[in-house]
Design goal:
Distance between the termini: 36 Å
Order of helices and strands: HEEEEEHEEHEHEEEEEHH
Strand order of the largest sheet: 3-4-5-7-6-9-10-8
Oligomer: single chain
CATH class: Alpha Beta
Number of helices: 6
Strand content: 25-35%
Radius of gyration: 18 Å
Length: 256
């Protein structure tokens, strides 16, 4: 229910200068038959953005130019102001809830409102170690290919995780499966406490949950979308390093 409106809002925000996409050069890295997508920042991405005050929260209050729609009673859908893949949607709680606390039924109910078109990929970064850049609760949505889907569904991922498959998404099943995975993986905190770092990947047919132990290796940072096979890299040196080190080895080191 968000995508057509997001394109309309994106067009206006680009014209006004409010939306600032990160400019990248696309690459493909093939490893063991999987085509990983690299997004390498180019010179046009080096524009300096105005520094923000300490504890600045871009979601409360949010920039009106980024507003797409309400998402149920407790969330709003906003554009990511600095997208690599566009449009990039954020489903944000409309009051401050910490990103590292456990998701609830209303979070999943709001999140799955964005799954009414093909090729929607959602991800969640549970804490700084898992790649979260903001402490305010937000789930993310992009429309893109999912390079790692075959290995994800094969059961051959080389790091600890839980995978759930669905015929159709609904918030009841997602909430129950999430709680089960978080308990089994030792990630779920006591009420009111912070969870251990983790990522979620969510498609229209499956949900993957994995623990995280590091947010980077050698300065290459990983968040949830990396576990679908997309990477944002700074320069050619990082491209070469990742090719030599190995993509799956890198992801495993960040997750184990």
């Amino acid at each position: 229910m968000f995508w057509s409106k997001a394109i309309e809002v994106s067009t206006q925000a680009l014209l006004s200068g409010s939306l600032l996409p990160i400019s990248t050069e696309p690459r493909v890295l093939v490893e063991n038959g999987i085509r990983y997508y690299l997004h390498v920042k180019n010179d046009n991405s080096k524009k300096k953005f105005a520094p923000k005050p300490k504890n600045f929260n871009p979601f409360l209050p949010y920039d009106e130019d980024m507003f797409v729609a309400t998402a149920g009673d407790n969330h709003v859908c906003l554009l990511n102001k600095f997208p690599v893949l566009a449009p990039h949607l954020l489903i944000c709680s409309n009051t401050f809830i910490e990103q590292i606390t456990a998701l609830d039924h209303s979070d999943f109910a709001a999140w799955i409102l964005g799954y009414d078109e093909p090729d929607v990929l959602g991800f969640y970064n549970g804490g700084f170690v898992a790649g979260a850049s903001q402490p305010h609760r937000h789930m993310q949505l992009v429309k893109t290919v999912n390079p790692m889907q075959s290995i994800t569904l094969s059961g051959e991922l080389p790091f600890k995780h839980r995978l759930f498959e669905y015929d159709q998404l609904n918030a009841d099943s997602l909430t129950a499966d999430y709680a089960q995975a978080m308990t089994e993986l030792g990630l779920l905190a006591k009420q009111g406490e912070k969870c251990e770092p983790y990522n979620i990947l969510l498609t229209s047919r499956w949900m993957l949950i994995l623990p995280r132990t590091s947010n980077n290796v050698e300065g290459i940072f990983a968040n949830g979308i990396n576990y679908s096979g997309h990477f944002l890299l700074t320069n050619e040196t990082q491209v070469q390093w990742l090719e030599e080190y190995g993509v799956l080895k890198f992801l495993t080191q960040c997750a184990s």
